[in-house]
Amino acid sequence: MDNLNYLGLLNDKNSFTREDLRNAMHFSGSQISEASFKAKLQVLLRSKIIARVGRNAYCVPEDGVNMYHHEYSELAESVAKKITEEHPYLDFTVLEIVQLNEFVNHQFAHNIVFVSVEGDLCGFIFDALKRSYPGKVLVAPTTSIFHQYWYDDMVVIVKLITEAPKHNTYPWSTRLEKLLVDIIADPLIMDSISESEFPNIYAEAFRKYVIDESCLFRYAKRRGAENDILQLIRHRTDIQLRTREL
Q1: DSSP assignment, residue 48?
Q2: How many domains, the chain?
Q3: Model-level pTM?
Q4: What range defines the domain where residue 96 resides?
Q5: CA 108, CA 217: separation in Å to the nearest integer?
């Protein structure tokens, strides 16, 4: 790869477009074809030298800011493995409450694994999991049933919202953008977290990781939570969004 001097011209930008990047390359003396530019853009993204923060919006991550990755618990891994083995083509995601421990002030000592399943297949997944986790699997429970039958290491199966963000590398992993929306929009997950933790979760997530804001707000709109999240960011955090005005 080249010496990347052109990125210095973009460091002061909150975000930049493909055209901004190409202009910076040209200004630094790098004259490349459109095909070569597209290939270099993908290399920069894969190498995490730049990161996508929205539709045709990128940034040079600051020191200490990374791409999000969560090391799942043994329970979450085993649930995902069981589902994948029995339904290899099923579209599903796994989110666990302890996933939030790096963002909250009060740590979760007990885990809950939420499995979001496409279409009307929740019943099939319930049948597949109840044999391995007897008495600990609930399917699409109401909040009252959820609390009535709560167990540590409970597995909760819910319907996957269409157009939910998908992880490109780890198919069943929950993207950070989805996690941030679900804690606001999903009644069961929201009921498991103190609302007082929401500002810190958002502030820490934006401080530590690159957030694709277009992805975040597109999914939030799909779940009817776009305005709630904007109000949270505007009035209860110091987050400076890169791609839209508050």
Answers
A1: T
A2: 2
A3: 0.87
A4: 74-236
A5: 27
